Amino acid sequence: MVLTTTESASGESLYSTFASRYVRTALPRFRIPDTCIPKEAAYQIINDELMLDGNPRLNLASFVTTWMEPECDRLIMAAINKNYVDMDEYPVTTELQNRCVNMIANLFNAPIGDGETAVGVGTVGSSEAIMLAGLAFKRKWQNKRKEEGKPYDKPNIVTGANVQVCWEKFARYFEVELKEVKLQEGYYVMDPEKAVEMVDENTICVAAILGSTLTGEFEDVKLLNDLLLEKNKQTGWDTPIHVDAASGGFIAPFIYPELVWDFRLPLVKSINVSGHKYGLVYAGIGWVVWKNKEDLPEELIFHINYLGADQPTFTLNFSKGSSQIIAQYYQFIRLGFEGYKNIMENCAENARILKEGIESTGRFDVVSKDIGVPLVAFKLKDSNQHTVFEISENLRRFGWIVQLTACLQMHSTLLF
Ligand SMILES: Cc1ncc(COP(=O)(O)O)c(C=O)c1O
């Protein structure tokens, strides 16, 4: 994002040592150059400058995939010039996206009848997926309130204070009040009891996280579902649940199959997952699936026909690349359930070893749990007294928890 800054004179031009055999003049930094330069020079200048970026494979603090097999890289490059939205031009890509949506919905135990297909869509990431899921809840709630002749101008959403920033964005961009359950000392996820207490007639949904961004912990969706069912029975409301499974959606089904967190629970109506996290695809792909057709209000779906036949779309963006969808499909058929399970088991094992090593130094407290996203989140022992409680409310804004995650994921994938 570019915000206004005052540039010093020295920052206005770019120079390149190696490209000087092709070009002798400096490039302006913030204006399109007046003249063209040879392609070799353009390549060299950019390549040199990018050397100052970090090396993705050494990035220890990201959930996002940094390595894929060369065969998949080839598929990605072959599709780099396909616009996904042009579904009539690229019907096979559309078909692969639909297969992925159905595979994910089945993985999350969506109740798909014989001859039916799942309801869902590929997105740029979990953030877009969450905006779409949130909009569906908001619209459903508004429609119901209108039918009942009740006010529908004060929707709210209940989450833990540990939610990722995309939930705050959703609330602000789409004018929904965000009611956050405060965290407590030593308990850094949403407490289901407190969440249900905060639900009122204006609550469009409660959002639970399967894999908190900071500590990787899974929230107790089953308990939330049971408590909310009870409250709905008492009040006559039908407040639903969304599960933000950005990370956990591609972990729990493979290594914690006994954990009930998905569409098996009656109140869970939609789930998002990031393909580019434990779905094992490079950045740029997420998914949202709805339990039933009725959970996605028809009026949010646009039907476009100017590129050919009628195509229903429910996304925030229009054009986007096809490569990530193809890469996701590659991973699904290449790894299968067995492959994902092996990789997630490797990740969990690596996390366990790393955790033991960190603990053995005697200087850190590990705050991540054994069941959850396979990462190690830890803090300095002596930062405890004055910080943990004070910052619990604003946990996500502080860098006191250090996470090691991507290295685990990448090495676990390489081992497979
Ligand atoms: C729990 C959770 N939800 C949502 C997001 C946003 O995901 P994305 O980067 O795919 O938009 C993240 C990213 O870290 C996350 O951890």
UniProtKB/TrEMBL annotation:
Cofactor section: pyridoxal 5'-phosphate
Biological processes annotated in GO: L-glutamate catabolic process
Matching SUPFAM superfamilies: PLP-dependent transferases
Reaction catalyzed: L-glutamate + H(+) = 4-aminobutanoate + CO2
UniProt keyword list: Decarboxylase, Lyase, Pyridoxal phosphate
Gene Ontology molecular-function annotations: glutamate decarboxylase activity; pyridoxal phosphate binding
InterPro entries on file: Glutamate_decarboxylase, PyrdxlP-dep_de-COase, PyrdxlP-dep_Trfase, PyrdxlP-dep_Trfase_major
A Pfam family hit: Pyridoxal_deC
Domain of life: Eukaryota
Record-listed E.C. numbers: 4.1.1.15
N6-(pyridoxal phosphate)lysine: modified positions: K277
Top-tier EC class: lyase
One GO CC annotation: cytosol
Family: Belongs to the group II decarboxylase family.
Entry protein name: Glutamate decarboxylase
Originating species: Vanilla planifolia (Vanilla)
